[in-house]
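Look over this today:
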Amino acid sequence: DSELVKISCLIGEREFMLKDILEIEMISDKVVNLLDLKPTKVTSVAYLEDIIMKPTFNGGLFGGYIKKGKKRYASGVCMQSKTSITYALDGGYSRFVAEISLDDRFAFSGNADFVVYGDGKELSRTNMTLKSPVKKLDVRLQGVTAITIELDYAEAGNSGDFGTWGNPRLYR
């Protein structure tokens, strides 16, 4: 016997078995999707010396949806390694949260660092390989007026480094 959890919202009520719930996220006016903001700067370094793949927003880097394993994202940013995107903030956010992974659909290898900068200062660096599971990133932003998310080469160069920032959110 598993316990039941009743979830009520604007569109009604539904019961779930506790063992079947993977994650619950509260959405309110205190949570902003990063992609609701317009980037102030986007930079990319050529892949294979002459190909620049622009980051994609709410879609996969090679088309289709954003996916890692069996998990699909309705919201997210996909980018090749050595790409960075900067957003202006009002200094009133406390956290940046996203689920990070390397896209395993179009590469056989990969090793990259997911980096978050606040006002030019490195706040977080997480190394991921193609075989790494999705990781939830939670970075403190107290007083930050500009956030930059970057996918960096790491140790193995840029082969297979196609990164995903799934469900990127800012919390007040």
In short: The chain has a mean pLDDT of 83. Residues 111 and 129 are 4 Å apart (CA to CA).
